[in-house]
Design a protein that fits this description.
The protein has helices spanning 14-24, 51-57, 104-109, 123-135, 141-145, and strands at residues 7-13, 27-34, 37-42, 62-68, 73-79, 82-87, 148-154. It is α+β, with helices and mostly antiparallel strands and 156 residues long. The protein has a domain at 44-144. 21% of the residues are buried.
């Protein structure tokens, strides 16, 4: 099982991190702090986001993950090591966690409602909107896309 401990790597630009992850068969995160939230970005997968890892990183705080891969998107909200709400944004009516209903209004506002007329066609964009509206999440575009962020290699 992956650990939340990591080996600090040199500051990493997006393309360098993606190339290194593919060539070296490692998991590499780029991380920073913005808008009162710490964030980590991983290209090419999400395998380290296990329940144990999310419980650990949300100990004493809260964590929100927005995952978009080629196979499945996923939204998670943890608070004080407890999973509060977790779901696939393409099927938001199938939520689980300690309080899956607590985001009902925000989910509808993000266009992720259960009925076809309340659902936007791009559910990943809806998931991002949910993160922005419900939690104030935002990323520094220039730093994420063009700049360097702290790099970390996550051991397997």
């Amino acid at each position: 099982m992956p650990s939340v401990r990591s080996a600090v790597a040199p500051a990493a630009a997006r393309e360098d991190a993606q190339t290194r992850q593919l060539e070296e068969d490692i998991v590499m995160w780029r991380a920073g702090v913005y808008g009162g939230w710490a964030f980590a970005i991983q290209a090419w997968g999400s395998g380290v986001l296990t329940d144990d890892v999310l419980k650990a990183v949300s100990a004493g705080t809260r964590a929100v993950t927005l995952t978009s891969t080629a196979t499945i998107p996923w939204f998670n909200h943890y608070d004080q090591s407890e999973q509060i709400c977790s779901f696939d944004p393409s099927m938001p009516w199938l939520r689980h966690g300690a309080s899956p209903e607590h985001l009902n209004t925000a989910i509808l506002q993000a266009g992720l409602g259960p009925e076809p007329h309340t659902r936007r066609p791009d559910y990943v964009a809806g998931m991002l909107l949910l993160g922005e509206n419900a939690f104030g999440l935002d990323l520094p575009y220039d730093a994420v896309v063009q700049g360097e962020l702290l790099g970390a290699v996550i051991p397997g």
